[in-house]
Amino acid sequence: MKSIKYQFLVVLLLFAATAQSQDSLAQLKKPRKLDVFPAISYSPETKLTLGVIGIKYFDFRKGDPTTPLSQLEFFTVYTTAKQLLVEGRWEFFTSQNRWRTRGEAIYNHYTDRNYGIGNDAGMLIASQTDDTKDTLNYLLFKADRIKFSPVVLRKIGKGLYLGLQYDMETMFNVEPVPDAYHFLNADSSRLTQLPVSGWRSGAGIQLLYDTRDFVANPLHGSLVEFNALHYHKWFGADYEYARFMLDARQYINTFSNQTLALRGFVSIQTSDGDIPFRALSRTNGHKFIRGYFRGTYQDFDLAAFEAEYRLPFWKEGEPTKLKHVWKRLGLVAFISGAQAFHSGDEFAFDRFNLAAGGGLRILFNQSSRVNIRVDYAFGLQPNSGGPGKRQRGLYFFLGEAF
C-alpha cells in the first residue's frame, strides 16, 4: 500500500520519461530494444524507494509476423529501510511459436505481512515498535526470499502449448518486526502454527492456450493456463503437497482500440499436513486483486475474478509526437473479488471480498502497446484493514495487471 501524499511526484517523473520516448512508423517495423525508466516511490513500510524498471526486447521471429516479440521484464529497487528487490520475468518465443519459455527469478530482502489463514482478515495483534503502539490485523516480519520458476512449452496445436515447469522458493532469516506484540483474540495465536521459512520445490506440467494479439497489452484474444505441480522431498522440498491452478482470461475489442478484459482464477492445494506461508492460495497485491495487500485473504484454496475496461486515447498505427503527448494517455476502470477457503464446502457466492478502482495509462512503447500503469484501488471489505478500516492502494508499474 502506497502513501498517496508522496506518490504523485512519481507520476510527473514517469510522464516526463514517457514524453521523451517517441515512436515512429520505422520503429513499428523495427521495434526498440529496451524500455527503462526510474522507479521512485515512498511508503511507510519501505520509506524512500529508488531503482529502475523496464523491459528488454528480443527478436527471435526470423521474419515471421505471427510470432510475438520476446521480452524480459526487470525490476530492481533499494529502499532507505534497507530493503532490496530484484525481480525478472521473461516470455521468449521461437520462430512460428514452435517453442516458448516463460517464468520468473526473484530475490527479495524485505518486510512482508502475515495475515494468517482465512477469508476474514480478522486476526488482531497489539504491537509495539520503538515508541509506537498499534493494533493491526497482520504481523510484520522481515525475510530473505529466493524464487525461481521456469516453464518450457512446445506448440501442439493452434494457440495450444504443453510443457514442463519447475517451481522453487525459499524464505530464510525470518524475524518479526515489532519489538513486542501479543494476540488480542484467541484464534490469532494460530498464526504461530503457520510455517514461514523453509524450502518448497516441485515440478509438474503446464497446459496453455494463448490467442492474444499482444502479450503485454492484448486488444483481443484468450489466455487459458492450467498448472499441476507436485512438491516432494525428491525435489528437495521441506513440505509435501500438490497444487492445481486455472487462470482464464478473455480480451474483447469492444470499439475502436478499447478493450474489455475479463479474468477468472481458481487455485487448489492438497496436502496431508501443513504447507508454507508463501505456498498458500492468496490475493497478490499489484498484479491480482488490486486494493488488498498481498495475502490479506489466503488459505489452501482461492477463487477470484477481475474485470477491467481499457480506454486509450491514442490510435493504433498513428505515431504520437511530443506536442501531442496527451494522446499517449488512457483510462481504465476495474472491479474484482476473491475468497479464500479451506475446502469446497466453504465456498459461497456471498463470501467474495470485493475491490474496485480506476487508473491512468501512459503509452510507453507503441509497437508493443506497453503502458505505464498508475492505478488506485479500494478494498470494499470494511474490516480488511482492521476493525472498521478498509484497505486501499496506489500502484505504479510497467505493463497491465493481466
Q: What structural category characterises the helix and strand content? A: mainly beta
Strand tally: 21
Proportion of beta-strand residues: over 45%
C-alpha end-to-end distance: 19 Å
N-to-C SSE string, H for helix and E for strand: HHEEEEEEEEEEEEEEEEEEEEE
- What is the molecular shape? globular
Mean pLDDT: 84
CATH class: Mainly Beta
Strand order in the sheet with the most strands: 1-2-3-4-5-8-9-11-12-13-14-17-18-19-20-21
Enter the CATH topology name. Porin
Low-confidence stretches: 1-29
What does this structure look like?
It is a single chain. Helices cover 5% and strands 54% of the residues. By secondary structure, it is mainly beta. The protein has a single domain, classed as Porin (Beta Barrel).
Blueprint (SSEs and pairs):
Layout: H1 4-19, H2 25-29, E1 34-43, E2 47-58, E3 70-79, E4 84-93, E5 99-114, E6 125-129, E7 132-136, E8 139-157, E9 160-176, E10 180-183, E11 198-210, E12 221-231, E13 241-255, E14 258-270, E15 281-282, E16 298-299, E17 301-312, E18 329-341, E19 353-365, E20 370-379, E21 392-398
Antiparallel strand pairs: 1-2, 2-3, 3-4, 4-5, 5-8, 6-7, 6-10, 8-9, 9-11, 11-12, 12-13, 13-14, 14-17, 15-16, 17-18, 18-19, 19-20, 20-21
